[in-house]
Amino acid sequence: AQYVYRFGGGVSDGGAGDRNLLGGKGANLAEMAGIGLPVPPGFTITTEMCTRYYDEGETFPDSVRVEVAAGIAHIEGVTGKRFGDAADPLLVSVRSGARVSMPGMMDTVLNLGLNDETVVGLAAKAGDERFAWDSYRRFIQMYSDVVLGLDHGAFEEALEIAKEDRGYTLDTEMSADDWKGLVAEYKAVVEREWNKPFPQDVHDQLWGATAAVFGSWHSERARVYRRLNHISGDWGTAVNVQAMVFGNMGDTSATGVAFTRDPSTGDNAHYGEFLINAQGEDVVAGIRTPQYLTRAARETAGAKAASMEEAMPETFAELAKVFRLLEDHYRDMQDIEFTVERGKLWMLQTRTGKRTAKAALKIAVDMASEGLIAEEEAVARVDPAALDQLLHPTLDPDAQRDVLTKGLPASPGAASGAAVFDSDTAERRANDGEAVILVRIETSPEDIHGMHAARGILTARGGMTSHAAVVARGMGRPCVSGAGMLSIDMKARVMRIGSREIAEGETVTIDGATGEVMAGAVPTVQPELAGDFGTLMVWADKVRRLRIRANAETPADCRTARDFGAEGVGLCRTEHMFFDAARITAVRQMILAADEKGRRAALDKLLPEQRADFTEIFEVMAGLPVTIRLLDPPLHEFLPHEEDEFAEVAAAAGVDVETLKRRAAELHEFNPMLGHRGCRLGVTYPEIYEMQARAIFEAACDVAAKSGAAVVPEVMIPLVATKRELELMKAVVDKAAEAVFAEKDRRLDYLVGTMIELPRAALKAGEIADAAAFFSFGTNDLTQTTLGVSRDDAGRFLTTYVDKGIYATDPFVSIDVEGVGELIEIAATRGRATRPGIKLGICGEHGGDPASIRFCEGLGLDYVSASPYRVPIARLAAAQAAL
Ligand code: ADP
Ligand code: MG
Ligand code: MG
């Protein structure tokens, strides 16, 4: 194998495509040299050599010694200097460089090739003694640290004392003689700490540094970094040996780092810092305050020190040209390192620059508008998950934060408001115009009104898929869940976090993106939904095949969904409409009724309310499809649980407390998730579904009569396991439809379909499709029932399961493609066999998850339905899945 690849001086043995072999740094140095940029000549020892070096007990084969000698000869040929030559010595850097950048993890040695003799030659040749001795002392310190493993503290201390003795504050005040004196001290430190003199043989230096760079691959910090970032330990690092260029040769020399565009805003402006008369890491090390690249940036910051544009106008113009060239070549924003040696610009590194979500969006859109990349490429480049950050208000990054504790970042966005500890109080205070944060130990369906009224939700218990988290995401409310340090004293109306106490009504702030909980108000900044975001969405929609709908049950949610581009409602959960304070009494009377007659009397009161709900939703959705799921939860969810509520509820419902308690006890279930719910309610009490169907068709007819817009209601029966269940329920719905059409003297198209959320339904989908015009995969329940895992209880063990690799990701966040996915595939195939063209979609949390959306695209489903705030994410993810 070839282990050494040269670059510079008109030669490039490798290129950007050789990242795995040459590491990112080496591959890009070769690439830059290849396109004619000024790159100091050098060579790369491959990552394969690193692996072999470890396989062979940390030794170098003879063949590589020969190749390295040829590499050195290459550099000597280009520079005209000789390695170890006393008169005109070649100095090199020995730089690490893995496949992926591991910032700050790996080692680099600069100025290698200096010794007591070559330093004299360097001084004479450069005509600058001070520069030569400055370089030598830098080399001794770096080599001692990286290669010899000596503590750098001793060197720093010696430099501090030297400066103090002379009354200096800055390194730049040190004279040639001062540096010379310090070099003598440094060598003494090495002898004392290492028991041997500092290595004078330049070849020993080179091999020592090469071994040390390979060695840094297995350093503790590199291992930890790799584990956290899922980088394989087998890859190894490459070593780059490169002729030194000197930014520390006086006032016409400099070193700097830059981005071709602003990595935090995405602005197409030169962005970076540089330092005159400095070397390598001085810019990032913070020894001196770096100067701005451009005059504009300097003026904005109100800084005095001249910018590069002002101090070195010609070199800066050259650098600006290089920026252009690099972007044209790589077609992406680059992060670069450069050095200026006596007015001459040298490029030392380039790589694709890291950026914020905001910058990623702007850069992708700008580059496509500039013609640098295609629109599809722009669509492909933006991470859909990152959009989430952009769709919600965020905390002002410059504001101060008094952090109380940290929970899980359950729903993005930030909010401030008065802490309140129950939902009724939240609603009352919000109605009075106050911003409130609902703080609960955990939330339940009874908290919906409080969650709606609150600006944000904070819970002490519950994971990323707890009730609070799921509902908050659906509503677009920021939420921090599982803040375990938090306790609430309902008597004293205070919450406690460690030693801190917050009384009800005091202001708190939550950051749903980080999970932070803060005392007091922290200012927020609003998202920008037009502009670049709008443009990218238009491009995404051009390539997208899947339709995107929203899970929405209120007119407000439907409006949000439409604003975000939803093409229909994929899941309207009717039970949320029953929790409304004005209706729950009628709901309870219905539950408490002794017979069908009593139930019908109560349902008659609910009918106009339900009809009004649907009317508003149909109006907002103006002709788009709306899937309405008939009542799903077990009835006891609507009854009180607390002792002190019974009397009040009994009085309102017109029964005595004993009757109420008896009925509540009758309805109690050991496992409500698998209990009397879904279509089982409709099978036992058909009048409930009949009322709901009637409300739907009356509303649809009314809206059609008023606006002429053809609403197509899609009536969905939940928790079906058998064809017979669906047939019975469909008959109820059809009968209601016929009755309404006769009364209103108007016919409408409508569909009756089912959720597929039980494994049996998926397996028997071929039969069920006889009665179903559509399937909507209820992936939340389908995951629970397929895995046999209750999502309300999964928090206790699911993280361990993911850590141990049992599930690759949380199956409630991203579809378990192997298991649940196979059931969906079976159901889709069998359903289509019975009813070609059967409409297929998914609803549930997975509808907004990019990986799950990719899976749905693969199956050719018709649509996914996501919570309103995730609609843009789903649009982008669906576009990427189609590319
Ligand atoms: P890192 O990966 O930690 O950035 P580098 O190998 O890029 O490490 O080098 C560290 C610093 O030294 C950078 O600022 C780089 O520009 C500088 N440097 C590396 N090689 C040379 C060289 N041949 N001449 C001048 N400066 C160099
Ligand atoms: Mg670097
Ligand atoms: Mg369900």
From TrEMBL:
Domain PEP-utilising enzyme mobile: from-to ranges: 435-515
Domain of life: Bacteria
Active-site residues (renumbered): 467 (tele-phosphohistidine intermediate), 843 (proton donor)
Domain Pyruvate phosphate dikinase AMP/ATP-binding: 20-57, 66-301, 314-369
Keyword set includes Transferase: yes
Binding site residues for Mg(2+): 757, 781
Cofactor(s) the protein requires to work: Mg(2+)
GO molecular function: ATP binding; kinase activity; metal ion binding; pyruvate, phosphate dikinase activity
The reaction(s) this protein catalyses: pyruvate + phosphate + ATP = phosphoenolpyruvate + AMP + diphosphate + H(+)
Enzyme Commission number, as recorded: 2.7.9.1
Binding site for substrate: 573, 629, 757, 778-781
Domain PEP-utilising enzyme C-terminal as annotated: residue spans: 530-881
PROSITE patterns registered for this protein in UniProt: PEP_ENZYMES_PHOS_SITE
Annotated keywords: ATP-binding, Kinase, Magnesium, Metal-binding, Nucleotide-binding, Pyruvate, Transferase
Transmembrane residue ranges: none
Family in the record: Belongs to the PEP-utilizing enzyme family.
Biological function: Catalyzes the reversible phosphorylation of pyruvate and phosphate.
Protein's name according to its UniProt entry: Pyruvate, phosphate dikinase
